[in-house]
Amino acid sequence: MPSSSSPSADQVAQDFRALYGTDPDGVWAAPGRVNLIGEHTDYNDGFVMPFALPHTTVAAVARRTDGRLRLHSADMDTGVADLDLDALAPGTDRGWTAYPAGVVWALREAGHPVTGADIHLASTVPTGAGLSSSAALEVVVALALSDLHGLDLPRWKLARLCQRAENVYVGAPTGIMDQTASACCEAGHALFLDTRDLSTRQIPLDLAAEGMRLLVVDTRVQHAHSDGEYGRRRAGCEKGAALLGVDALRDIPYDGLDEALAQLGDEEEVRRLVRHVVTENQRVERVVTLLEAGRTREIGPVLTEGHASLRDDFRVSSPELDLVVDTALTSGALGARMTGGGFGGSAIVLTETTDTDTIKKAVETAFANAGLATPRTFEAVPAQGARKVA
Ligand code: GLA
Prior knowledge:
Blueprint: H1 9-20, E1 26-37, E2 47-63, E3 68-73, E4 81-84, H2 98-109, E5 117-123, H3 133-148, H4 155-170, H5 177-184, E6 189-194, E7 199-204, E8 212-222, H6 226-244, H7 257-263, H8 268-292, H9 299-312, H10 319-330, E9 335-339, E10 344-352, H11 356-369, E11 376-379, E12 387-388
The structure holds alpha-D-galactopyranose.
C-alpha cells in the first residue's frame, strides 16, 4: 500500500495558491476503482460490481466568469494550459488535458452554464494500471464544476457526462462502469450496477472482518493497441446482438445461451464474445447472491471462472496477468482474476489474511523468474466515491 493513498487537500490548495495567486473556492476528490466482477459487460447493458479505491485524484478549483479554463497537474510536466471554452472541440487535444476539457465541453453541450475555472490537480491513482485514473480525473472535475456552478447534478448524470467526455471528446469508446464507480461508490461497499438503467445497490463488503484480503497486483505492463482491441471487442459484441436480434447481449438469458450459440453458427469469434458476456452477467449475479448470503469465501471460484472466460473466450488477458492469477491460485488464493479492460494492467487476488504475504512473495518471485519488473501490490479496501474535501 502506498504510504499516502490520497493527496493532501491542504497541500493541493496551497499549491493552487502558489500557482494562481488566489485561494481556491474548494477542493474535491474522486477515486480510482477496481472491479470485483463484471468485465466487458457494461457496453452490453449488463451488470458490474466495482468498488472505489482509497487512491484519489484531488482538484483545487476556483470558478471564473470570463470563459477561460486553466488546467495544471502536479503529476505532469506540461505547465498551465489556458483554454478558451468556446474553442473546445472533440478530437483537438491528445494530452491529459483532454479529459478535464472534455468534461467542461460535455457539461456545456448538455446546456449547463459553465463559465470557466482555474484547476490544479494531484493524483495517487496509478496510471496505465487499469484502475480508472481517467475516470477519477473526469469525475473530480465534473463534481467540482457542478458544485461551483450550482448545477446540482445527480451522481449518475455526472457519470454519464464524464462518459460522453471520454467517448466523444477524448475518443475512447468505454462503457459507463468506471465513471459511475468513481461518482457513486460508498466506503465499505461494492457497487452493484445495472448498466442498462443505471440502478444501483450498495453491497456491504468488509473482507478484513471475515479474515480475508483483496490484493491488487499491478503488473506494470500495458500492451500496445489495447484501445483498438477494446473497440474491436465492443464491435464484436454489437455484431452478436444484431445477429441474435436483441438490443444488447444483456437480453440473452443464461438459459438461452446454448440456443444463441447454435444460432450464431460458424461465427466463432462472435460466439466466444457472446459466451463471455452472458456467463459474466450470471457471475455478477452469483457474487451478489453469495455476498448477501454472507458466503463471501465462495466468491473466490467465481472470480477465477471470470478470469478463464476473459482469457479464453474474450481474449483480453495477458501473459503477465495470467502469471499473477496462476501463481496466486497455486499459492493458496481463494480466487483471482484480471480486473478492468485487460491487455495488461492489474489483477485482483482474494486471499485468507494469513496467506497474504506468502502469495505476494510467490507472485514477485514468479515475476523475477520470468524476467519481469516487480509488480506493485497493495490491499484494496472499498473507499468513498467522489466528494468535497475542503
Ligand atoms: C474499461 C472501460 C470500462 C469497462 C472495462 C471492462 O475499464 O473503461 O467501461 O468496459 O474496461 O469491463
